[in-house]
Amino acid sequence: QSQKTEQQADRLSRIGLENRKYTRARSTGYGEGKGMSVTIQDSVLNRNNLNQAYLRVKRNKGAAGVDDMTVNDLLPYLRENKAELIASLREGKYKPAPVKRVEIPKPNGGVRRLGIPTVVDRMVQQAVAQILTPIFERFFSDNSFGFRPHRGAHDAIEKVVDLYNQGYRRVVDLDLKAYFD
After folding, report:
1. Do strands 111-116 and 38-39 pair parallel, antiparallel, or not at all (unpaired)?
2. Helices and strands (H, E) in the chain, number of each type
3. 3-class state of residue 34 by DSSP
4. Which residues contact 122 (CB under 8 A, 6 or more apart)?
5. Are 100 and 66 in contact (CB under 8 A)?
6. What are phi and psi of 133, to 5 degrees?
7. Where would you tag: which of 56, 65, 118, 124 has the fewest CB atoms within 10 A of its CB?
8. Over the range 50-71, which residues count as b (16 or more CB within 10 Å of their CB) and which as e?
9. Per-residue b/e over 101-123, b at no fewer than 16 CB within 10 Å?
């Protein structure tokens, strides 16, 4: 029993989560209500979750990263390297590749710097986001719009206009109509 407990503690510290109550999520697929649980890591590495992440990356297309692998190259790569990828993630040995830096010209003459991760890194990021987003989304304020699913700058402006139309006037001389013309 002691050795098993030490192994569990070692594994938890390797994934950077020292407090066990934050590493477990209840799952109906694993017998919710029967005292069984699954770790967040298991949820991220679940076959269905990884398949959904792959499909999302494929659907989003995007440019190749520093390894020049395209989204069309991803499926053959995964078929050949799936076991090694999952093992490196499970063991905490996965290292994302450097991000490819590109500059996109702006209409006003400047440039916009953009970082492009590899397609494998994008798939891993997507798999993690699919599990963590629903967990943390419920803690965000309804007035938070940045980098949230189904929310953006236009939603924030719409909220400000709505509050203004309700009579809130904390910001004086603000011409919001200019944003919509």
Report:
1. unpaired
2. 6, 4
3. coil
4. 57, 60, 62, 65
5. yes
6. -60, -50
7. 56
8. beebbeebeeeeeeebeeebeb
9. eeeeeeeeeeeeeeebbbbbbbb
The Cβ of residue 124 has, within 10 Å, a number of other Cβ atoms equal to 22
Give this prediction's pTM: 0.67
Q: What is the pLDDT of residues 123-135, one digit of tens each?
A: 999 999 999 999 9
pLDDT at residue number 33: 45
> CB under 8 Å to 96, separation ≥6 — which residues?
117, 118, 121, 124
Per residue in 121-175, pLDDT (tens digit) is 999 999 999 999 999 888 888 888 888 888 888 999 998 888 888 888 765 545 5
Q: Which helix (H) or strand (E) holds 111?
A: strand 111-116
Predicted pLDDT at 29:
46
Residue 100 has φ and ψ, to the nearest 5°, of -75, 130
Report which DSSP code applies to 110: -
Return d(Cα 141, Cα 136) in angstroms, integer: 11
* Averaged pLDDT, 62-73: 96
Q: CA neighbours within 13 Å on the CB side: how many for 101?
A: 4
Count of residues making up the chain:
181
One-letter amino acid at 96 equals P
